[in-house]
């Protein structure tokens, strides 16, 4: 089982966007620079976050991305599902029906117990991700990460954020 | 995020082997037939379960597979890790270190908070799988699945199990 690498990038970008002033934006290129990623690779994931209405993209010369709602209302589950899709990791192929003895569909109305147990574990995973708010991730970063890293991160945001144009 | 299809096959085979009498075995070919899978595909996963000491393989004409320990002491976590590997699904690529500001390694002694939160959710997933004993899966199948399916499954096991030779 493996999550795509885009999840790490997507969460880091959302956390960075939680640090901008007001409704300022940061460009995809700047975020790609911040994490040493290819801009086109990152763009794909930023677009997924926009499609899921976690980010808002603003076009034009002062354009870029910002959070579509407060970081208190964005969870790691929102981000993981936006990037990885909503399907469960365990996908029952109904192999119980493939054997030599053919029973009609009425014998399989109940979900297979193995599927039930696997999906129950996934609910525990998702519940844990749903408890992790982006705002908490950012608050913990500010207090717990190395101060040099926090200072560099904040300076990067200050330098790259683009205030919303007053005319818009 | 997706689990390999082998997980479904591996759990079904282990559950079937929990139903044999004493230390009888069932061949890989019979289990492949039971679930409509290619024998070579299934063999790969049966070998993974054997390597993880969940199954024991017995060679020779009366050979096949049996559980290496009682079903009470086999969990879905054991099986999932045997088939999917023990690495976490979320693999931190340390992208926090890739930015334009280079800090020395001492700034990154603590795990990234995003990594910590993702691994915490995986612990919840694994804990739920660790609670699901193979013996419970089988007991629930016997009481809750459609009686026609249970009867067909038990008949299949009775027909295909190979008693251990008294000489061995
Ligand atoms: S038939 Fe898919 S998990 Fe049992
Ligand atoms: S650097 Fe990998 S999760 Fe933050």
UniProtKB/TrEMBL annotation, chains A, B:
InterPro entries registered for this protein in UniProt: TR_Rrf2-type_CS, Tscrpt_reg_Rrf2, WH-like_DNA-bd_sf, WH_DNA-bd_sf
Pfam families according to UniProt: Rrf2
PROSITE patterns to which the protein is assigned, alphabetical: HTH_RRF2_1, HTH_RRF2_2
PANTHER family: HTH-TYPE TRANSCRIPTIONAL REGULATOR YWGB-RELATED, WINGED HELIX-TURN-HELIX TRANSCRIPTIONAL REGULATOR, RRF2 FAMILY
Name by which UniProt lists this protein: RrF2 family transcriptional regulator
Organism: Mesorhizobium calcicola
């Amino acid at each position: 089982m493996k999550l795509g690498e885009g999840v790490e990038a997507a969460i880091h970008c959302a956390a960075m966007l939680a640090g901008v002033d007001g409704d300022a934006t940061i460009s995809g290129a700047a975020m790609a620079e911040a994490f040493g990623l290819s801009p086109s690779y990152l763009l794909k994931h930023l677009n997924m976050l926009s499609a899921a209405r976690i980010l808002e993209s603003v076009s034009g010369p002062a354009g870029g991305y910002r959070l579509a709602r407060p970081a208190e209302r964005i969870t790691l589950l929102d981000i993981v599902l936006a990037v990885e899709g909503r399907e469960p990791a365990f996908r029952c192929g109904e192999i119980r029906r493939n054997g030599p003895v053919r029973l009609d569909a009425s014998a399989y109305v109940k979900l297979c117990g193995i599927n039930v147990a696997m999906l129950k574990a996934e609910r525990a995973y998702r519940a844990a991700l749903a408890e992790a708010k982006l705002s908490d991730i950012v608050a913990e970063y500010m207090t717990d990460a190395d101060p040099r890293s926090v200072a560099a991160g904040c300076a990067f945001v200050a330098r790259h954020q683009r205030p919303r144009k007053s005319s818009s």
